[in-house]
Amino acid sequence: MIVGVLAFQGDFSEHIAVLHSMHVPAIEVRSLSDLSKVGALIIPGGESTVIAKFLEETEVGKEIIKRIQRGSTDPQPLFVYGTCAGAIVLSKKVTGKNAPRSLGIIDITIDRNAYGTQLESFETEIRVKGISGKIPVSFIRAPKITRVGKDVEILAEHGGIPVLVRQGRVLVGTFHPEVRADARVHQLFLEMTRV
Fold it and tell me: Confidence class of residue 65 from pLDDT cuts 50, 70 and 90?
């Protein structure tokens, strides 16, 4: 299976590098044609307002929604992992200043830039359900998940706040795992696609 990384804006090249280090075929996704070639998609961190605008203008967002909503027997199901800005655009509801229009794919409410400015960004280690040991992650102008729907599974928390959650074929995290080039969350995402 080919994994796509949405490459409108943001740190898509770091995700591609992690996937290549895992020997996973990966391509940049900028169009409907690109999206049609992949079975899994990563929406990276960056500027959520810019990413949301591109998703709307190119209609890639509509196609992501269609492929997520298809049943599990669909010949071409799509799995999606959103990090930071990616988590924002996938959320059901977004709050905070200049909140973009989201795709509404995962039943969470997320507060944009809730951890503060670039100066308040930080690195830490977290424990993730199903992964042994601690994972080094970066919170860069990160959002906060403020509500989790009943069908959403919490896989990791930081300070009592969910930071990695899953619903069906969608995984979202408010942190950046790719900055430290740790592949374990990417591996968890790939394992979802094999179920």
Answer: very high
Would residue 178 show up in a list of annotated catalytic residues for this protein? Answer: yes
Tell me, yes or no, if 176 is annotated catalytic: yes
CATH class of 3-192: alpha beta
Domain locations along the chain: 3-192
Q: Annotated catalytic, 123?
A: no
pLDDT tens for each residue of 123-156: 899 999 999 999 988 888 889 999 999 999 999 9
Which tokens go with 54? 């591109």
> Which one is catalytic: 14, 15, 158, 176?
176
Buried b (16+ CB within 10 A) or exposed e, 45-56: bbbbbebbbbbe
Active-site annotation holder among 14, 15, 178, 186: 178
